[in-house]
User: Which sequence fits this backbone?
């Protein structure tokens, strides 16, 4: 199998491609402490981080909530080895409650991706219920919702309606 290895040049504003036959594979099970799993309910899809780096929003596209994880709590759980088990032999799964900062309750159906504005709000696309939901990052509660007439995926810019 071949793949194209693309390298972008700032000088020429274009990319060059070389066709490759192999790629280097990193087996994370051979490097303990490199990878940790953070549980995300019901078919994880998008993971987005607030501009300050403190909150990690994980969308499970079949979940009834949007979990908002804390980066600081995640580091603390890693330091204290607050695990809920292991996968693939030696990859720790962090305990959900130990890393959770809060949950957005009843956001809609099919949360996919979240973007953030400079006023402390988050905007999450809902794939199944075809809407964008606005919620408060500091206190994860729904503020507003805007129906859309297509199945949204990632947002390019927050919806102007808000």
Assistant:
């Amino acid at each position: 199998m071949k793949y194209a290895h693309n390298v972008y040049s700032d000088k020429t504003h274009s990319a060059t491609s070389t066709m490759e036959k192999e790629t280097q594979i990193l087996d994370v099970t051979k490097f303990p402490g490199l990878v940790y799993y953070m549980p995300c309910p019901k078919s994880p899809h998008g993971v987005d981080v607030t501009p300050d780096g403190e909150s990690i929003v994980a969308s499970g596209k079949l979940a009834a909530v949007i979990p908002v994880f804390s980066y600081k709590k995640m580091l603390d759980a890693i330091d204290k080895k607050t695990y809920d088990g292991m996968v693939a032999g030696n990859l720790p799964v962090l305990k959900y409650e130990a890393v959770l900062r809060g949950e957005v309750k009843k956001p809609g159906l099919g949360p996919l991706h979240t973007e953030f504005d400079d006023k402390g709000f988050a905007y999450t696309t809902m794939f199944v219920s075809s809407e964008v939901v606005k919620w408060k990052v500091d206190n994860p509660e729904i503020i507003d919702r805007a129906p859309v007439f297509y199945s949204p995926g990632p947002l390019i810019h927050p919806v102007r309606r808000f």
Remarks:
- The first strand starts at residue 3 and ends at 9.
- The longest helix spans residues 71-79.
- The radius of gyration is 19 Å.
